[in-house]
Amino acid sequence: MEWVKIIGYLAAMLTTLSFLPQAIKVISTRNTQGISRLMYIMFVTGLALWLVYGLLIGDRAVSMANLLTLILALPILLMTLRRQ
Amino acid sequence: MEWVKIIGYLAAMLTTLSFLPQAIKVISTRNTQGISRLMYIMFVTGLALWLVYGLLIGDRAVSMANLLTLILALPILLMTLRRQ
């Protein structure tokens, strides 16, 4: 694999998996103070559209990466929505 | 413009601009409680690699979208790093 592709895969891995520590933190502490609810409403909607886009153009990398990020970002959104 | 492309642009706009309300919230309240520092370390590193990747393959949409997200996510990272 050429190194340009490695940079791409590394970038995709980092931006996708970055939501894992946030999801773990929010689920374990139940503390969403400081987290913008509007950010996660926009972000999760955007991820769902990326997923649809990836399926429509038949690009598995786009659909799979965004499905995984969606799975990680969704519990964060749900926790911020439960906040008063 | 075909509607599949519109979905792609809308998705890109939402996932990119979603970091704007979080950046505004963090800068105005100085409250980063609940926000995962590790998430933003990984996310900003990933965005920088996406930017490099976009420049290397000569894809302006990839480099510009990730540069914009980087500009929005960087102050969030800096604020979480300042937290004790």
TrEMBL record, chains A, B:
The keyword Transmembrane helix applies. It comes from the Bacteria. It is found in: Membrane. InterPro entries: PQ-loop_rpt, SemiSWEET. GO terms for cellular component: membrane. It is a multi-pass membrane protein. Keywords: Membrane, Transmembrane, Transmembrane helix. GO terms for molecular function: sugar transmembrane transporter activity. It holds the Pfam family PQ-loop. The chain crosses the membrane at residues 6-26, 38-56, 62-81. NCBIfam families: SemiSWEET_2 (NF037968). This is MtN3 and saliva related transmembrane protein. The lineage of its organism: Bacteria, Pseudomonadati, Pseudomonadota, Gammaproteobacteria, Enterobacterales.
